[in-house]
Structure formats: C-alpha cells, structure tokens
C-alpha cells in the first residue's frame, strides 16, 4: 500500500475562543464527538480532563459547538474548513491541531496483480518529483477480493483514477492551507502573546474584569470573581444579570444596558455606566460593588461587547454606614462632648446644650472645667484623669453645674480615642442628666425604708441599723439600748375624733421622739401606734432610763389638731441592753418587747428596764405622767 496524503485533525471552537496549544492544560471544558469513533476512544484515554458530549454525527458535533452547548469538537483539517464554509458556521474557527491524531490516506493492490500495480505506478508517475517525494511510501488501504473479475477491475481502475485526482486535489489544497497556516503563524503567535499578557493582567487583577454580549451573556469573567463572591469562573459565566445581582441592583444594571442598547441601535455613542450594586455570594450574604462598563467597538465601528470592571466597596460602605450611625448617635438624647488630646472642646451636640444651658459657641475652645461644681474636691477630678490614662475610660456619677448656676446630678462616660500608634488624639464624653432618676430613687428609697405618715424609718431600715449597731458594739465593746414605745389609749382617739386626728397625733409623736434623740440615734414606726428607739454607744442602763424618761415627758404634753381638738396621750416603754441583757438581735428584740408589755400591764405611762429572772419586774413610773 502506498500512503500518498496526510490530513491532520484540528480543534474547532467558537470564534471568540483563544488559541489552544495543549488540550491537557484545559479544565472544565467539554468536547462534542460522534459516538463510537476512534477519536472518542483516544480522547477519553489521552485527555481525561475533558468532558465528552456524544452526538450521532460529525455535523451535529459542530452544531453543538456553534450553539454554545459544547466548547469544542475535533475533525480533519480539510473537512473542517469545507464544513465551516459550506454550512455557514462562521462563528466557528480552527483553534489548534493534534499532530498525533493525523490521518494517513493510502491506496494499495495485491502483490499478485501486476496490471493494477502498473496502472497505479503510472498514475503516481504523473506527479512532479516534489509531489512524488511528498507522496512516496504512502498507501491507500483497499480491500481486494481474491480472483480477477475484469468488470470489477475496470471499475476499480476508474475509482483509482478518481481517487488519485481527489488525492492530488486534497494534497494541493493541503499545501495551500499549510502555507496559509505557516504564513499566519507569526501573526498568531504575536496575537497569542498579546492575549496572554492581557489575560495575565486580567486574571491577576484584584477587580473583576468581564465582557458581555448584547443578550446579557458573559463572554469572559476574570478569576478574581471567586475571591469576591465565591463562585468559580465557570459558575459566574453561566449566571444571568438577575442571578448575579440582587433584585433592586439588577433593575439598575438592566436599565443601564437598555440605554446603551438604544444608543447602539441609533448608531450613537453609548454612555458609560457606573453604579453601586449589591451582589449575592455563593456561601450566603451579599457584597457591595462598584460596577463600571462601556461599549467596545471594532475598527468598522461595530459593537463587539460590553467591557466591565467590578470593584469591592464593602469596606467603604461599612465606613459610610458607621459614619451615618455615628452621626445619628451623636445627636442622641444623651449629651456629647468631643475634645482634643489637651481636653479643649471641639464639638458638642444639641442634647448637651439642652442639659447644660450652654450654646455650642459658648464652650467650643474651652475645657470641661466650665461644668464643674463645688460638690467635689480637686483630687476627685484628678482621680478621674488618672483612671482614663490608665484604662482608657471612666464611668460614674458626679455633680455638674448648668450655665444658670444650678447644680444637678450627672451620669457620665469618658472614653479616650487613640490612633494606630496608641497615642490619645481625642476624648469623647457621653453625659446624661439623672436628676429625675435620683428623685425617683429617693422616692423608692423612701417608700421602701421609711414610714409614709411619720417619715420615720420603718421596721426594715430599723432592723438594718440595729444589726450594724450590734456589730459595731461587738468590735468596740460598747453597749446598745433598744426601746419599745407603745402609745397608751390611742385607739379611743381614732374612735372618737377619726383617723385624721389619729394621724396628726402619730406625726406629733414622731417629731417629739426625734426631739429627744441624738443624731446617731434612730426612731422608727413599726406598727399602728408602736415605735422603736435605738441608742448606740449608750454608757449604761441608767443612761437609757434617763432618755426614756425624757421621751415619756415629751409625749405626755398636750397637742392641738388643725381642727382645734386638744389631745393628750402617754406611752409605755420597755428597754433591753446589749450585751447586758442579750447577745443577739433576736433576743434583744424579744426582751425589749416583753419589758414594754410589763410596763403596759403595770398601768401604762411607765418605763420598764428588763430585769433578770431574779430581779423585781416592777418598772418606774414617768414622773411627768398625766
């Protein structure tokens, strides 16, 4: 057999595809091939990195590539060139070749058929020496049946002549194509290098560079899209505008493309597009981007595609949001002061002016000293400054002074602002007028610990003070006297003159009790007409008796109500001494209460000091009893 022609297999892609030097370097690409061919087997074996799409025929394979359903196909050079031209597939091109897949055309005859071999040799001798040299040692594989059938021989000769002519035609066209390929190789190589340089720049840019056709289909997306949104290039290439943007941003982008399309159709220059758009990320969430795109035209002024750049502006958007939040927070209900590192006031908000009474221009350029009151010593403010210097902030309550001289309670937080080197650049103070809160706290405290009628401590506060007095007496080895004071014949006053008269009498008793005590003593109302008196640091039982006698005398004096009713009352008082009579709070209360009942049972208007079981239980009658 003589091999007289070589036909290489080439790679066919769409027009926009780059030159392919090695199929092994491709990833994520698909190749359309006719089912059951030798090329299919070899591609599956040699290029496992490619995804094979099987078709029923070679024309169908080329059609899939033309319609973007496959990235490439593989066909012989001459057949491919002929099909592209005759079938009108002008969006396809030859992007490379596979030398090891070259097809060799051969013709041959049986060795024992000298006539046929002579005819074949004569046909080959018609070729020029150069052509013969190129075709030498080439064979055409033909299956010849055994025996001679002269009718078939003549038919075979005719076919052989036709095959030789076809072979010559193919060979000459092949040489022309090879010459054309050789002539354009330098241009292709220069174009390839230029494309590689531009692709290198695009692939390594931090911004996402992309191109898109008039139908909104991506024709190129740079790899930086994966860093920005998490999608691979292949995934991003398949996304539509609605998939690549949030609904609100997609409307903005589509409106921009519509304006560009109108200009293109009117043969006018399309306006450039710029907008801040929100894009969804693969693993959840969104990212804010600045998108710019413009139209690209060829030398004939025809639209080619959109060229766009997408930049991540998430950090800028976060900064803008922080500034907006800071501006809103600055004009909050709390007063705010911003000073420099030397504590000179740079800015105050409206709430500060409402609280302090100072307009901004009255304090800017001064220091916060203008707000100081005389309620705190200088070392108090020195301690605040030391805390800020040590920890970066101070939080607490202090008394400040308004512009009109009024002193008011204030809750304040002072924070030091530092730069990247750790140096303090500013101070920010957030202050709040807590006058109303203090008033409410005082009211709550009054309700919780004081009797609302007499304003004396209630049982709860008295118990706390008694416990503290006993602890102090234990430490100092001193004595504490506890008195139970119960009014005699108080119920008839309520029954006869009403509760208003009774309340007036209780208030009078509270005032007279307080008039008999020291500042360190405590008087409390613990029941309707029951009072307790605490005398810490009392020197002896007789001293407690003297105070009780004084109270008896004070309470026995008459009083006149606002309605002009004159009232008289007396009291029974029981006394117990710590640690003489009891060592615990509970026992002291029990013994004092028992002493009071002993005084009341003895006729009232009497003082009874607790006695030991062996002492006489009789007490002492108030000398001023009425």
Rg, Å, rounded: 54 Å
Going across the major beta sheet, what is the strand order?
Answer: 17-18-16-21-22-23
CA(first)-CA(last) distance: 156 Å
Class per helix and strand makeup: alpha+beta
Q: What fraction of residues sit in β-strands? A: 25-35%
- Uncertain runs are 135-149, 612-618
Count of separate DSSP helical elements: 20
In round numbers, the mean pLDDT is: 82
State the total count of DSSP E strands: 23
Helix percent reads 40-55%
Shape: rod-shaped
Q: Sheet with the most strands?
A: 6 strands, mixed
Question: Can you offer a commentary on this structure?
Answer:
- The structure is a single chain.
- It is built from 20 helices and 23 strands.
- The protein has a 6-stranded mixed beta sheet with strand order 17-18-16-21-22-23, sandwiched between helices.
- With 626 residues, the protein is an alpha+beta fold.
- The radius of gyration is 54 Å and the shape is rod-shaped.
- Helix 17 crosses helix 18 (499-515).
Highlighted features:
single chain, 626 residues, alpha+beta, six-stranded mixed β-sheet, five-stranded mixed β-sheet, 20 helices, rod-shaped
What can be said about this structure in brief?
With 626 residues, the protein is of the alpha+beta class.
